[in-house]
Structure prediction request, 282 residues.
Amino acid sequence: MSLPVKLSSPATKEFWEIPVLFEDEHLFALDKPSGLQLTPDADQPEQPSLLALLHAAIAAGKPWAKERDLAYLNQAHRLDFETSGVLLLAKTKPAFVALADLFGVEKPARKYLTLAWGNPPAKNFAVDAKLAPHPIRAGHMRVDPDNGKRAHTDFEVLEQFSDWCLLRCSPVTERVHQVRIHLKHAGFPIVGDELYGGKKLWLSRIKKDFRLKEGREERPLFARSALHLEELVFPHPVTHEALTIKSEWPKDFKVAVKYLRQYATGPSRRGHQDEETEFEQK
Prediction:
């Protein structure tokens, strides 16, 4: 079994042991944890980033990097700070260039899992809406039919609960926050995605006889945006063989779906929109 990637941040005293999902002489795929940004943030330079930590570990000759004789790593696609799942990296510059060309083609190679608020009217639906940076809110995206870039996402309802749904999301293009903003635009914001109107999921909300022990404080079932890249399907950039890389559901997904299956299988008790949520439609 391959050595997992062990990373630490002296600045924040955090430690990560990241499983390796796939590797050969050209490619390296990791199971990215939620809560670790991919690249350095200019506004928060003190915060650790996965790419910077990987490069520092390679330069320091850490055992997992030395065993693989790693000298180069670069990401083939982007993942948001809170998003977990498959992260594909190239071990060589030619492989990186080939992957960049591959992921630049409009073809659904990424399959995300998400929990969203609401009840889609059909098992399968799609959103085709151009996206652009928000003119006022830094770091936000919005639907912009006039000035946005083309963006298309296919959705499949895997399970429907009373006020929530488990979805598989297949973006055909790769735009910043694409799945998140497309679901918001469709009226089904992602659980925990407070940037785009998705409220947190609480056990007290779905379990009628919920009781909290004295002195205890309830924690949300999802403390982050419920988005997980569970599968990448693409032709190998060198061998051209069909390749599928999968990531298991993280613990928060397993726990949340377990409780939803147990306590939220009846009819909707309340719409997913309320006074506290404003949807930005255009």
Observations:
- The chain has six helices and 14 strands.
- The chain has a mean pLDDT of 90.
